[in-house]
Amino acid sequence: MSNPAFGFETTAEEVAEAHKAEIPGKTILITGVSPNGLGSYTAKVLAMHDPKLLILASRTLSNLEAAQKEIADVAPSAATRLLELDLGSIAKVREAGQKVGSWDDVPKIDILINNAGIMSTPWALSPDGIESQFATNHIGHFLFTNLLMDKIVAAKGRIVNLSSAGHRFGPVRFEDWNFKDGTEYQPDAAYGQAKSANILHAISLAEKLQSKGVTAYSVHPGGIATNLARSVPIEVLQKKGILDEDGNLNKNAPFKFKSHTQGTATTIAAALDPNIADRSGAYLADCKVDHGEVWEKWAQGQDNAEKLWALSEKLVGEPLDV
Fold it and tell me: How many Cβ atoms from other residues are within 10 Å of residue 277's Cβ?
């Protein structure tokens, strides 16, 4: 059962403090770590509670180095390691996964946080011919997670996928994930497809890994002012009421924004809370298991999850048994 004291206002620090016994000695890998982002903030909070190692992954080395410095400023003794990871390229994901696999001094990964993502970007294909949001937000993480699986299983670890209430923008288009080669492309629908996939991926992992002691969750972090929406034109954000006419956050936006510390709280709850160990596959919002309030039916169910797994195997070019 989720902690009843947690909610919208709960901070990452409060969650980490409540579950601080779950952090010492753990090896934690976080994707999408960059300055001022949710991944970096998540890492900083965890770093203050004596993890064995934080592995910080991102496409850009300079972002990783800047985030590493941010962590060192708040937790000078925290051990960190950097990993270049381009989730938009299957070949690059394989390189990164093989690199982690070669680290003999990292025999297990206790927590994997699949945090990286892009949002509502213009039409583009990945190097592998996959719509870019689906490629980066789901397919890359699908393959990367599987490449790390031996080390996750060794730890009986946890996997956390950052999804979004934005999964309600659209389901996975199992027969047309590329939007008729872009001719029917809608950036928000593609974002919804990718975020729905993050939820279904966690459902599959939970079912497939139950006997191995590994748990998996997906989370809605909340609406947070980060660089995630950098590809969305200002006029679109204004039309949606997110920005005002001057380009600033709209105080009368259709939803209430969270701070970075509130926005990373649910991720940390999913990664640490021992009270949800029996709810593997669940979708969390506001640090609690969601029971359908913001969880669309198309992102639920083992049938949909299995269809996504089969499609994902097809797109990476091989069966991936766990």
Answer: 10
